[in-house]
Fold this protein.
Amino acid sequence: MNLNIAEAAHVQGTERWPGQERRTQPRESVDIAVRMKIINPIMSTGPASSARVRDRSAGGLKLLTSRPAMVGALVQVLMPGKIVMGEVRHCSATGAEFHLGVRIVESF
């Protein structure tokens, strides 16, 4: 049975990356309801959609959303008390939803 890394992690019952950890900042597991808007002209149709922040660090967010996003797309994340602008670094399907890895570009 040949599985890619995402499939192998799913079969093992974990979402952790099986390779060497490359993050330089610690992640905090959270569950925060947010609104997300894709700012890429190709995919920027309609209003902001609901999403959830599943973990965060000083430099990034992991979002769970019903909409996919292209790697490199700019996104605006409306969080309680702040707005975060970020760049999508990866997008992977998880059932009917998508996990987005977002590098924070600016926060205000």
Observations:
- The chain is about 5% helix and 50% strand.
- Residues 5-11 form the longest helix (7 residues).
- The beta strands are 28-38, 49-56, 60-65, 74-79, 82-94, 97-107.
- The chain has one domain: 26-107.
